[in-house]
Design a protein that fits this description.
By secondary structure, this protein is an alpha+beta fold. The chain has 14 helices and 32 strands. Helix 10 packs across helix 11.
Length: 619
């Protein structure tokens, strides 16, 4: 009884309290009945007397009424439901299909409205018209609109686990295709073009609506799910070499190099020309062999690493010195634009123009053909990515009774743990539509199901589950197990091994730490990290640790005073070794240490701490 009295008192208190009204997060007033205000504002927005871009929501938990009209909100269109019926009637639908009704008209008529994330909290949305009840407030235009633009183009995303859908989404952006039709007229910094792009045989409705077929980024592969002698272990792929020779996965890579004649204070400027032999930093004569008289390379020249594209001379970094005869010599340094180490190809085009600053500018586009090789990355639209582990000749590949040879063999273990059932379904659908001659529908929540594809395959005389007896390419004997084989869309990704492969013996070092530079572009060393070091410690390979982390990195010999423990130096004028704390000390010895350690000592000194190195004879 006491509990009921307390509850009544609390309700009476709440009834007397006013609800705060917030406009874009700012308190602008209070209202007594928020539910009445909500229905009035909804009516005025639907009737057109209020801007369609305003959203409102009453949060009963916090007792706040939110009104949002600020820019940058994500909003989605929904069909309005009133009295358990959709406002998009069959009459309006037929007018829309006939082109007599526009989208804007439907919004102004109050048939469709946009909700933001906050207003969605107070809405009850039905997926299909058949699901509508009296409690529903809105209806989805199409269930596929729940997903974003990229995910909506993927086949059967609802059959795959969410991390794989996320991966497939990001890998679709990395796929090679025809990104623009006028690519040969442009000078993009980097560009990949697939030689023979194809539309997927099994595609979603948004894929067609968005016109991705015009900019396809992949090819339909015949794929068998089978192990092959360990060459497709884990995520590796075995690819048909003969299919690659016929153009499978072949692409061209464009890279634009540019340089300009810069002006310097004092009236000096760069000049495009064949650098004279006297120029500082002159390279080997072979590097300039493709240049014409004006110092600019000729189109279709075949390039090797470190070949010069544009010969350019710059004024010296410091002022000229007066020569013996009192003449001022005009010194030049070679500042030519060249191909980086490891790059090769052919000059596709040369553009000579003026920059915004009014200086002469040259852009050289280099073309290189990328034939799929071991290490190149491929992925299906289900997040099943892998690299080529082996290229196998067609005569050695397994084949079906009809003589069909797979283009690709993926490992069966890649499917169950990743839970990509959509991958298997697309293979089944691809196999069925190859014979029917129609595109398969793989739209999320509404695509063609397994049942349809199974019936089609059964009618055609195939096994309804997509499995077939394959024959061994080496022996010609049938493989005892039935193998799942079908057609699926695969994408070649721009992670090409030829653009990443890097090795170094000797090369440049950083100025400060004297350790090897980082990155392929700077001819850097390969990083030997903490975890690699831990492996060697665990293995007990102490001499290898010493070699990697000291001898092959930043070994240096520093003078150390045995008396004071400080770092000394050599006075070349007096030709003697000096200790900074005791000039008369004669106990200075060269000690092998990492240059990074010497920098650490210097940093400790800068903090006002004096580090001493205690020395003793080697045992």
């Amino acid at each position: 009884m006491a509990k009921k009295i307390r509850k009544r008192k609390k309700l009476a208190h709440l009834q007397g309290r006013k609800t705060a009204v917030l406009l874009n997060g700012r308190l602008i007033g209070e209202v007594e009945n928020p539910n009445d205000l909500l229905s009035k504002l909804s009516e005025s927005r639907r009737s057109g007397s209020m801007a369609a871009g305003v959203n409102f929501y009453y949060n009963s938990r916090t007792d706040e009424f939110m009104v949002n009209s600020d820019s940058g909100r994500a909003r989605r269109p929904y069909i309005i439901v009133e009295g358990g019926k959709s406002k998009l009637t069959s009459e309006l639908d037929s007018q829309l299909k006939a082109g007599q009704m526009s989208w804007g008209k439907l919004v102004s008529m109050g048939v469709i409205e946009y909700l933001d994330a906050e207003e969605e909290e107070g809405a009850r949305i039905a997926l299909h018209e058949a699901d509508i009840t009296d409690e529903h407030t809105h209806l989805e235009i199409d269930p596929v609109t729940i997903t974003g633009v990229t995910v909506s183009t993927l086949p059967y995303p609802e059959y795959n686990s969410s991390p794989r859908v996320t991966m497939a989404c990001s890998m679709s952006k990395q796929s090679l295709g025809t990104y623009l039709l006028n690519f040969n007229q442009r000078n993009d910094s980097r560009g990949h073009i697939l030689y023979y792009p194809q539309q997927p045989l099994v595609q979603s409705r948004p894929y067609k609506i968005l016109g991705f077929g015009e900019h396809a980024a992949g090819q339909n592969f015949v794929v068998a799910v089978v192990c092959h002698e360990g060459y497709n272990t884990s995520d590796a792929l075995v690819v048909n070499r003969s299919a690659i020779d016929r153009g499978l996965g072949r692409s061209v890579f464009f890279k634009t190099h540019e340089t300009e004649e810069r002006r310097y204070p004092g009236g000096q400027k760069d000049k495009f020309e064949l650098p004279p032999v006297t120029a500082q930093g002159y390279r080997d004569e072979r590097a300039y062999r493709h240049l014409s008289d004006d110092g600019i390379i000729l189109p279709e020249s075949k390039l090797e690493p470190k070949d010069v594209l544009v010969g350019k001379t710059s004024p010296p970094r410091f002022l000229e010195e007066v020569s013996v005869f009192g003449m001022v010599e005009e010194k030049k340094r070679d500042n030519s634009l060249s191909v980086k180490a490891g790059d090769h190809g052919a000059v596709d085009s040369v553009l000579i123009t003026d920059s915004l600053a009014g200086n002469r500018l040259v852009k050289v586009r280099v073309r290189s053909i990328k034939v799929p090789e071991q290490g190149d990355k491929f992925a299906s639209r289900h997040g099943q990515k892998g690299v080529i582990g082996m290229k196998l000749s067609q005569e050695d590949m397994p084949f079906t009774s009809e003589g069909i040879v797979p283009d690709l063999m993926i490992n069966p273990h890649a499917i169950p743990s990743r839970m990509t059932a959509g991958h298997l379904l697309e293979m089944l659908g691809g196999k069925a539509v190859c014979h029917s001659g129609k595109f398969g529908d793989a739209t999320a929540f509404a695509g063609d199901g397994e049942e349809k594809f199974r019936n089609e395959l059964k009618t055609l005389g195939f096994d309804e589950y997509g499995v077939e007896t394959l024959y061994d390419g080496y022996t010609g004997k049938p493989i005892k197990a039935k193998i799942y084989i079908g057609v699926i869309y695969y994408q070649k990704l721009h992670h090409l091994v030829s653009n990443k492969m890097h090795v170094r013996a000797r090369g440049p070092v950083q100025l400060l730490t004297r350790q090897p530079t980082e990155g392929r572009a700077r001819e850097g060393g390969l990083r030997f990290g903490e975890m690699e070091r831990d492996c060697l410690i665990g293995y007990g390979a102490s001499m290898l640790i010493r070699e990697r982390l000291l001898e092959e990195s930043d070994r240096s010999y520093q003078l150390v005073c045995a008396k004071t423990g400080s770092i000394g130096y050599k006075d070349y004028i007096r030709n003697r070794l000096v200790s900074p704390l005791d000039e008369n000390s004669s106990e200075l010895y060269y000690v092998e240490m990492s240059h990074a350690f010497k920098l650490l000592l210097d940093e400790i000194k800068s903090m006002g701490i004096f580090p001493r190195l205690l020395m003793r004879d080697k045992a």
